[in-house]
Design brief:
It contains four helices and seven strands. The protein is of the alpha+beta class. It has a single domain, classed as Electron Transport, Fmn-binding Protein, Chain A (Pnp Oxidase, Chain A). Pfam families: F420H2_quin_red.
Length: 144
């Protein structure tokens, strides 16, 4: 198995379940967020840990695997998503509409998002190490 495939498998089977559990216990890891999409085949909610890309009324996500990521395929089928940001009692879901941005530079997007926020920078740096074909997704959040 290649390095990216091994890391992807480790992330899917070990890291993501731990991060989802932390959110369920209201103890999210700083710098993380939770993305909810609707399964394109099942219609069921799907939860994906992502780096906290909140910037005002916009939420930015970089897909490590580009359009091959299941969550990207899901939001292409139904762009209405929810994002859970901020931990503890202040955690809340925000609804929004996702847009895949083929022309955006995902590495530059991550560099800009990481400025001034150490927890987010650590999440983005870890994520960047696993990129095989990064792709930027912009989520326009609905008013709170």
């Amino acid at each position: 198995m290649s390095w990216p495939a091994t890391m992807y498998s480790l992330q899917q089977r070990l890291v993501n379940p731990i991060v989802r559990l932390a959110w369920g216990l209201r103890l999210p890891i700083p710098g993380d967020a939770l993305l909810e999409t609707t399964g394109r085949r099942t219609g069921q909610p799907r939860y994906t840990p992502v780096c906290d890309g909140l910037d005002g009324e916009t939420f930015w996500v970089v897909s490590q695997r580009g359009r091959r990521a299941d969550w990207v395929r899901n939001l292409e089928a139904d762009p209405h998503v929810r994002v859970k940001v901020r931990g503890g009692p202040r955690a809340r879901w925000r609804t929004g509409t996702a847009h895949v941005l083929d022309d955006d530079d995902p590495r530059e997007r991550q560099r800009v998002l990481g400025r001034g926020n150490l927890a987010r920078l650590l999440c983005l740096s870890t994520s960047k190490a696993l990129h095989t074909s990064p792709l930027t997704v912009r989520i326009d959040l609905d008013p709170p």
